[in-house]
Amino acid sequence: MWNELWEKHRGKCIGAACGIFFGLVYLFFGFWDMLIFAFIVFIGYYLGNKLDRGERLLGIEELWRWLTERWRMFR
């Protein structure tokens, strides 16, 4: 079971493990920041999922397009 999980979802496993690790590090420095912990785990899972699908982790063009569309209304 674990080998099958590792072979099919390697990026998600690595991303979630990194998220849990960094979340625990953050959690030890502030117990009341459970939402930040959950957010860090989610970001790790999300990036791992993108890695599994073969997508780029950060699309600069898409980010730039989104920012220019959002800030255009303030001109």
* Share of helix, binned: over 70%
Q: What is the residue-averaged pLDDT?
A: 78
Distance between the termini: 55 Å
Give the beta-strand count: 0
- Return the domain count: 1
Computed structural class: mainly alpha
- What is the H/E order? HHHH
Number of helices: 4
Strand content: under 5%
Low-confidence residue ranges: none
The coarse overall form would be flat
Main pleated-sheet profile: none
Radius of gyration from the alpha-carbon trace, in angstroms: 16 Å
Question: How would you explain this protein's 3D organization?
Answer:
- The chain is an all-alpha fold and 75 residues long.
- The protein has four helices and no strands.
- It has helices at 2-8, 10-29, 34-52, 60-71.
- This is DUF2273 domain-containing protein.
Index terms:
75 residues; mainly alpha
In short:
The protein has one domain (about 1-75).
Annotate the secondary structure layout:
Blueprint: H1 2-8, H2 10-29, H3 34-52, H4 60-71
Transmembrane segments: 20-47
Keywords: Membrane, Transmembrane, Transmembrane helix
InterPro entries: DUF2273
